[in-house]
């Protein structure tokens, strides 16, 4: 990280006037009150979540949204990436909850009135318990249920929202849920590897079909023409030892499998290998911009003892600064991620997540400045970047880490749900207001 004194010597940079300055959350991580999700069940068994907490309370954003959106408005943020959890709207098969839909419409309407543009994530890891019990994403025949949920939510809210993320981070989901066994359904080993590949294949199919479905609904209902993408977690994969052919080879494999497999398939509209045999599933590409979630870099080496992870071993650069979860803080990686995504796909980019788990808010401020500079560098080099959504608006339920990893621009006291914007939020607000850094 650059020291405070050196910072003042750095020239000012200016972002475009119409740049989107946002923050992001996910429904399970903030909303609270949803007892029909697979995550709610998963949290019940002691030992699975670091602090043995549950997502059932989270930030009670579902009831505090007005207060939260007022903070965003006051801080001059003009965009918000929020999520809808399917389990909230369809607790049991066949029955959709129109009251929950009305409530959600109230949230979107409140954002509109405050001139905060919503970007709606339709699936962010969490599944309804009943669908997870049927095998969730691992069975192609299950996808029809997902499409009914899409119809329900898009037909019910498409007059208030026109930008969508269909699925958040299929790569992270498949890795942690099926290969590393630390998220529901908790699979690992060779069986988990195969299920993870099946899930990823079906998620590509679901994304492509959902892309068309959303467009069809918006056209039929005369809603504004939508813009649709996925949010892909991109991690820089560098070889631990750049002189080792094996490490370089596994770093390339990790880059392809983790960073590019899903997006190449979406871009080509094909089930590319190893997701399939090149079958066409979409007429041309199925996205309108690239949503990139960027946090960190992994150092990759060859490891004989991880055959189920394709002999890949991840570690952290020991010389670099790290966040509270041990992830390297590597701003340059954001320039690299954005440049290589644009070189490959030639689509406008949005940073749909970027942030730091830290209890020292000074580090968060430095993280924001350094990453915005890195992003601006990519823009200077010609990449059309439409916006930046900081992860996260507020401290929240950080999946298996429970409430132990504060990512928020806003501090949340989980005993009384009191919110307090941090200094880093004030800094971010100044940047958003002036468009300069
Ligand atoms: C996920 C978020 C998560 C964040 C920080 C991303 O991979 O989309 O849900 O909270 O990383 O771990």
Keywords:
14 helices, 437 residues, eight-stranded parallel barrel, alpha/beta, two-stranded antiparallel ribbon, TIM Barrel, 13 strands, 41% helix, binds beta-D-glucopyranose
Can you put this structure into words, describing what you see?
By secondary structure, the protein is of the alpha/beta class. It has a single domain (4-434), classed as Alpha-Beta Barrel (TIM Barrel). Helices cover 41% and strands 18% of the residues. The chain is built from 14 helices and 13 strands. The chain has helices spanning 4-7, 27-30, 38-43, 61-74, 86-89, 98-113, 129-133, 143-157, 170-179, 189-220, 245-268, 332-345, 361-380, 423-434, and strands at residues 20-24, 79-83, 117-123, 163-168, 227-239, 270-271, 279-280, 290-302, 312-315, 349-353, 385-391, 410-413, 418-421. The chain has an 8-stranded parallel β-barrel, surrounded by 6 helices. A two-stranded antiparallel ribbon has the order 6-7. Strand 10, helix 13 (361-380) and strand 11 form a beta-alpha-beta unit. Helix 12 packs parallel to helix 13 and helix 13 (361-380) packs parallel to helix 14 (423-434). The protein binds beta-D-glucopyranose. Beta-D-glucopyranose binds at residues 26, 29, 168-169, 172, 233, 293, 353, 391, 398. Residues 26, 29, 168-169, 172, 233, 293, 353, 391, 398 line the site of beta-D-glucopyranose.
């Amino acid at each position: 990280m650059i020291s405070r004194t050196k910072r003042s010597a750095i020239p000012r940079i200016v972002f475009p006037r119409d740049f989107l300055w946002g923050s992001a959350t996910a429904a399970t991580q903030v909303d609270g009150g949803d007892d029909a999700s697979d995550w709610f069940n998963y949290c019940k068994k002691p030992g699975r979540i670091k602090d043995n907490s549950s997502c059932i309370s989270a930030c009670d954003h579902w009831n505090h949204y007005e207060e939260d959106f007022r903070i965003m408005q006051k801080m001059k943020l003009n965009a918000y990436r929020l999520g809808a959890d399917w389990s909230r709207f369809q607790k049991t098969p066949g029955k959709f909850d129109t009251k929950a839909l009305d409530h959600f419409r109230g949230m979107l309407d409140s954002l509109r009135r405050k001139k905060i543009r919503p970007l709606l994530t339709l699936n962010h890891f969490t599944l309804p318990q009943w669908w997870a019990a049927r095998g969730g994403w691992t069975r192609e025949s299950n996808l029809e249920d997902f499409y009914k949920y899409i119809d329900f939510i898009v037909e019910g809210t498409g007059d208030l929202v026109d930008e969508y993320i269909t699925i958040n981070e299929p790569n992270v989901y498949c890795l942690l849920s099926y290969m590393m066994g630390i998220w529901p359904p908790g699979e690992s080993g060779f069986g988990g590897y195969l299920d993870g590949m099946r899930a990823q294949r079906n998620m590509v199919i679901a994304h492509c079909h959902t892309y068309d479905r959303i467009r069809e609904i918006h056209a039929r209902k005369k809603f504004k023409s939508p813009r649709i993408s996925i949010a892909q977690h991109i991690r820089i994969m560098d070889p631990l030892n750049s002189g080792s052919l094996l490490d370089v080879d596994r770093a390339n494999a990790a880059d392809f499998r983790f960073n590019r497999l899903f997006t190449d398939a979406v871009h080509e509209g094909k089930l590319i290998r190893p997701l399939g045999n090149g079958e066409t599933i979409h007429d041309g590409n199925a996205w309108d911009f690239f949503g990139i979630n960027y946090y960190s870099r992994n150092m990759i080496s060859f490891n004989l003892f991880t055959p189920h992870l394709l002999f890949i071993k991840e570690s952290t650069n020991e010389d670099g600064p790290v966040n509270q979860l041990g992830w390297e803080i590597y701003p340059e990686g954001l320039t690299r991620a954005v440049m290589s995504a644009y070189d490959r796909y030639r689509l406008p980019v949005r940073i749909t997540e970027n942030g730091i788990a830290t209890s020292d808010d000074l580090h968060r401020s430095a993280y924001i400045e350094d990453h915005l500079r890195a992003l601006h560098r990519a823009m200077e080099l010609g990449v059309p970047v439409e916006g930046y959504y900081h992860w996260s608006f507020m401290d929240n339920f950080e999946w298996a880490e429970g409430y132990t990893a504060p990512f928020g621009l806003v501090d949340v006291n989980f005993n009384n749900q009191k919110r307090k914007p941090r200094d880093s939020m004030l800094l971010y607000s100044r940047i958003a207001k002036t468009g300069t850094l």
